[in-house]
Design brief:
Elements: H1 2-28, E1 46-47, E2 56-64, E3 70-75, E4 79-81, E5 83-88, E6 91-99, E7 105-113, E8 116-121, E9 124-126, E10 135-137, E11 152-155, E12 175-176, E13 179-180, E14 182-183, E15 198-199, H2 204-209, H3 211-217, E16 221-224, E17 228-229, E18 240-244, H4 271-278, H5 280-299, E19 303-308, E20 364-365, E21 368-372, H6 380-392, E22 402-405, H7 415-432, E23 437-440, E24 457-458, H8 461-473, H9 490-503, H10 506-511, E25 513-515, H11 524-527, H12 535-538, H13 549-561, E26 565-569, H14 595-610, H15 613-616, E27 618-625, E28 628-634, E29 639-645, E30 671-672, E31 675-676, E32 681-682, E33 686-687, H16 690-698, H17 723-737, H18 742-753
Helix pairs in contact: 6-7, 8-9, 8-13, 13-14
Length: 758
């Protein structure tokens, strides 16, 4: 009995000892570092990045080294424990393989640390799983490799360069929206408020003449606003989808009469215009010039995409012919406006079946009678015709590299019909040119259109242009509003970017058109003056008064280092200003360029193209405060740090770089690539000291907390007898580590151990 009691007591002592040991071990565990958790849809964390149905996909996840107990990959019906596949720079990398089917594959990560369980999804770390934030894989969705991070350049053709004065629109050549066409004689004239009828003479030959300039700038893709036959300078009111406008191309057959004089507004009398745009010799010569231009662009290793406006056409269109341009021309059937027997009658919807001839009762796009709505649901012939147009221009001899689609979601029909149309359009275009890109203009959430069977990507208003504009300028993208609460608000910027980028899964994000300005919005440089206004009441001078080129350089820096395809709107690189449409369509300032701004664009484009990580790397936010932002673009082999200070004063900040995968070892080398200031910019390299690196990766070098940069003040500090000693020691430490550059460390290593392979 006594022995049993002794045994029981001894056993209890052993159990207590084990418990103490376990508690000690638990207490010694490193703190759970949720900031180290990371994964995304790049090729570095998902291989292949664009899988097909039936493919086995390797998915990876990153944690701090020896910091978690387990990681699980969780999908709809699977929960797979991930295994460590590598350790590097203080991180463990976990991986798991899954085979995906034909449906969308959604997944997230479950991380276990002791008794703590958390989750990681498209928005980062969370304590509760939310399905709408899952990572997604769309089987079979791939975007052209050439478009990922491609540097694009948008040209509004009439305002770029007049390369051939013989094709210029002349004053009185025709009548359009209340007045006659106007030939602008002075290239630098500010566009009129109602300047749709003003023509400066820019053309395809002008683009051809400046290809050397564009290539030297670093442009990889040229995006042209519409170039097909049209009576306006913007050409979003197409007259003939089959031909390039001879006013942009070549006029080989002309007419010396037929100018509208006095009060004559009847375009059936505009014989000069009729000859120019209906004569097949002019049309074929213009198409031939365009083919020559695309061939030269491709010879230089560049690409070209066209603007497709397929939700409506123009009242001048040969299918409608409201202006009676084609009525008496040989080889052209009667337009639907002219005759009830027109082969194009069902291309449009007419409300009065008894109004012919010259039936004005057709539906207009957003009720505009100059923009007849195309009746796809009522005409399979029209439907197929537009699909052939999509194919024609991406095929020989033109070989265009893709389409930008104007207001693509708004065809004016049911949502289901619109989706079906773009599915068929994609099939047609990709069948003709599998490497063609389909890039849509879209406002709002594009998720429903980006599933791999419709659009490739979008013009990135929501996840780039708008948040960036608010953050750096406090301005709305039309210059219609100023928000003091959004100027410098980095939290709002990061929140907006994360929210809207989630809708653009990685394939679409890497090819999204990231613009600062375009033909629909005010020039970014103008927004830097915080002036709310439009040219109609503010005047043209107000657009350039008080602008801040330094903020413009910050914007360009972000544009060239952000995920997506940075797209320069012609003239932005030359310091062009302007309020919203039509003031944003000023002519390129040849001879009046801001050469410093051009040089800066050239440098930033070169940097963008040099570093692969800027095209396909991950994005991570490292630091932010009011008017300040730091983020990294990174892979396991390459890291790029971008720091933005939008305050007028310089300041010192400490930023932890380890999240980007920058090694904490002594042989790590950071090189400053470029720095901007109020005065300009410089590329002069700067090597950081050992002290810079240690402070960045490890924090303060102060030997005691009282001397931290953000001190933990001791109540007895004033009476501390040893404080002077610690202050002296800190001074010695700082002096020494700041006197040794990383170059010194590298050179010393190479002298003793041989050359480093960095």
């Amino acid at each position: 009995m006594i022995n049993d009691r002794e045994d029981w007591t001894e056993m209890e002592h052993e159990k207590a000892d084990i418990k103490k040991r376990m508690q000690y071990i638990l207490n010694m565990r490193p703190v759970f570092n949720k900031e180290a958790l990371f994964s995304d849809g790049t090729e570095y964390y998902r291989t292949p990045a664009e899988p097909k149905a039936g493919d086995t996909v390797t998915i990876k996840f990153r944690t701090q080294r020896n910091n978690v107990d387990s990681v699980y990959l969780v999908s709809q019906e699977q929960r797979v424990q991930m295994e460590i596949c590598g350790t590097e720079n203080g991180f463990d990398y976990y991986s798991a393989q899954v085979t995906i089917g034909a449906d969308i594959f959604r997944y997230y990560f479950e991380i276990q640390y002791g008794w703590v369980t958390c989750y990681y999804n498209n928005q980062g770390v969370c304590m509760k799983h939310e399905g709408r934030m899952d990572f997604e894989i769309y089987p079979g969705f791939d975007t052209p490799k050439w478009a990922k991070g491609a540097v694009m350049y948008q040209i509004y053709v009439d305002r770029f360069l007049n390369g051939d004065p013989t094709n210029d629109v002349v004053t009185g050549e025709y009548h359009y929206i209340g007045d006659k066409s106007v030939q602008v004689e002075q290239w630098n004239k500010i566009p009129a408020v109602m300047g749709v009828r003003e023509f400066y003479g820019g053309d395809l030959q002008g683009i051809m003449n400046k290809l050397d300039y564009l290539q030297d700038l670093g442009v990889e893709v040229i995006y042209l606003n519409p170039i097909f036959v049209s009576p306006s300078n913007h050409k979003y009111d197409c007259q003939d989808y089959d031909y390039v406008d001879p006013h942009y191309g070549r006029i080989v057959e002309d007419c010396n009469e037929g100018i509208l004089l006095g009060d004559d507004d009847d375009n059936s009398h505009a014989w000069k215009y009729i000859k120019r745009v209906t004569d097949k010799k002019n049309l074929e010569a213009s198409n031939e010039l365009f083919a020559k231009l695309t061939a030269e662009i491709h010879r230089r290793g560049m690409k070209i995409i066209l603007d497709g406006v397929f939700n409506h056409c123009g009242s001048f269109n040969k299918w409608m012919d409201r202006e009676r341009i084609y009525e008496n021309q040989e080889g052209y059937p009667k337009g639907a406006y002219v005759s009830a027997d027109s082969p194009y009658r069902n291309f449009f919807s007419f409300n009065d079946p008894n109004a012919w001839p010259y039936n004005t009762s057709y539906d207009g796009w957003w009720a505009h009678d100059t923009l007849p709505k195309l009746n796809y649901e009522g005409s399979r012939e029209l439907y197929d015709y537009i699909l052939r147009v999509g194919q024609k221009w991406v095929s020989a001899p033109y070989n265009v590299d893709g389409w930008r689609l104007d207001v693509a979601a708004d065809l004016g029909h049911s949502n289901d019909f619109n989706h079906q149309f773009w599915k068929d359009f994609r099939k047609a275009v990709k069948a003709a040119n599998p490497n063609a890109i389909i890039l849509a203009e879209h406002y709002g959430n594009p998720e429903g259109w980006l599933k791999g069977d419709e659009w490739d990507t979008v013009m990135n208003y929501d996840a780039f242009m708008e948040p960036l504009t608010w953050f750096l300028t406090g301005m709305e993208k039309h210059s219609d509003e100023y928000r003091e609460d959004l100027l410098g608000n980095s939290e709002a910027f990061i929140g907006a970017m994360k929210t809207h980028m989630r809708a653009l899964h990685m394939s679409a994000l890497q090819t999204a058109m990231n613009e600062l300005s375009n033909h629909d919005h005010s020039r970014f440089l103008t927004r830097t003056n915080h002036r709310v206004g439009r040219i109609s009441y503010a005047g043209p001078e107000a657009a350039s008064e008080g602008v801040n080129p330094a903020v413009m350089r910050e914007a360009v820096t972000i544009q060239m280092t952000w995920p997506g395809a940075p797209t320069v709107y012609y003239g932005d690189e030359a310091g062009l200003c302007g309020f919203t449409d039509p003031d944003n369509r000023r002519t390129y300032p040849w001879g009046r360029e801001d050469y410093q701004m051009i040089d800066f664009h050239r440098v930033m484009i070169r940097i963008h193209k040099k570093y692969e990580v800027l095209k396909t790397g991950s994005l991570g936010f490292l630091w932010n405060d009011y008017q300040g932002l730091c983020y990294a673009r990174f892979s396991r082999k390459e890291q790029m740090i971008v720091i933005i200070n939008n305050q007028a004063e310089s300041r010192d900040v400490e930023i932890q770089l380890w999240q980007a995968g920058i090694s904490r070892l002594a042989d790590t080398k950071l090189k400053r690539i470029v720095v901007t200031s109020a005065e300009g910019f410089t590329e002069e390299p700067e090597e950081y000291t050992a002290g810079d690196i240690i402070r960045t990766t490890e924090g303060s070098l102060a030997p005691i907390a009282c001397l931290d940069d953000v001190p933990n003040r001791c109540e007895r500090q004033d009476q501390c007898s040893t404080l002077e000693f610690w202050e002296g020691l800190k001074k010695v430490i700082d002096q020494y580590v700041d006197s040794v550059t990383l170059a010194d460390l590298v050179n010393n290593h190479e002298e003793k151990c041989g050359k480093l392979d960095l």
